[in-house]
From TrEMBL:
<protein>
    <submittedName>
        <fullName>CoA-transferase</fullName>
    </submittedName>
</protein>
<dbReference type="InterPro" id="IPR004165">
    <property type="entry name" value="CoA_trans_fam_I"/>
</dbReference>
<dbReference type="Pfam" id="PF01144">
    <property type="entry name" value="CoA_trans"/>
</dbReference>
<dbReference type="InterPro" id="IPR037171">
    <property type="entry name" value="NagB/RpiA_transferase-like"/>
</dbReference>
<dbReference type="GO" id="GO:0008410">
    <property type="term" value="F:CoA-transferase activity"/>
</dbReference>
């Protein structure tokens, strides 16, 4: 078991029965989170950028957008229709990750350093700026809980953080879970994984989050759930 498995379970627990969910291209942790929720018995609608929607079975492969990964689905759901769902307020959950996330919920998928002379040029946000504000709930995962990912201020705002009228933002990291607090306009620490302390969380961030008391204890992935994830992802793509 790796930290990423706990992150995937954290993401899965944010889904509700009947949710319409949408993932980006080759968003393996998000795909596995949706399938884990279905394994628990939740009835969620699963649409995505490139693959067939509502597949009966999935086997993750290292190739992005592999048409053979999704088996016996109901058809293709083009991105234009997904954006229209979001515009009408009918997209329940959108999944994102980010290279940087700040206390205001601003996300960066564009550059590290200045935009004109970046130290690292990232893949870019695609439709992040639109969908980040349009989905009812945004579930974000971070592979790394550190000062370089949880920053005071992002180097570039690919998509601005939520507003009081915007979506609910939930962030799952290898150490903890955060929820965007509408009153303060900042991320709030709401839960910890077992054996992780508040100090451990804060010392590995570039800002001090608000803290909700009492903090919940996040459930780590079980052996049965891990076996299920391994069945869907035999090449362990989720760890890469």
């Amino acid at each position: 078991m790796a930290d990423m498995d706990n992150v995937i379970k954290c993401m899965a627990t944010q889904l509700r029965n009947g949710d319409i969910t949408y993932t980006g291209l080759a968003s393996v942790p998000a795909i596995l989170a949706i399938e884990l929720a279905r394994y628990w018995g939740l009835n969620t609608w699963f649409i995505n950028v490139a693959e067939i929607y509502e597949p009966k079975d999935i086997v993750i492969t290292p190739s992005s957008g592999d048409p053979y990964s999704f088996i016996d689905g109901k058809g293709f759901f083009v991105s234009l229709d997904a954006f229209d769902l979001a515009r009408r307020g009918q997209l329940d959950v959108m999944f994102f990750s980010a290279a940087q996330l700040d206390r205001r919920g601003n996300m960066n998928l564009s550059v590290i350093g200045s935009y004109e002379r970046p130290r690292v040029r990232l893949p870019g946000g695609a439709a992040a700026a639109y969908l980040y504000r349009r989905a009812r709930r945004v579930v974000m995962w971070l592979r790394e809980h550190s000062r370089r990912t949880l920053v005071e201020r992002v180097d570039f705002i690919t998509a601005p953080g939520p507003t009081k009228q915007g979506p609910t933002l939930i962030v799952c990291t290898p150490k903890a879970m955060f929820v965007f607090d509408r009153d303060s306009g900042e991320l709030m620490l709401t839960g910890l994984f077992p054996s992780v302390s508040v100090d451990d969380v804060i010392n590995n961030m570039a800002f001090r989050p608000r803290i909700k008391e009492p903090l919940s204890v996040l459930e780590p992935v079980t052996n049965e759930e891990l076996q299920f994830l391994n069945k869907l992802d035999p090449a362990s793509v989720r760890y890469s």
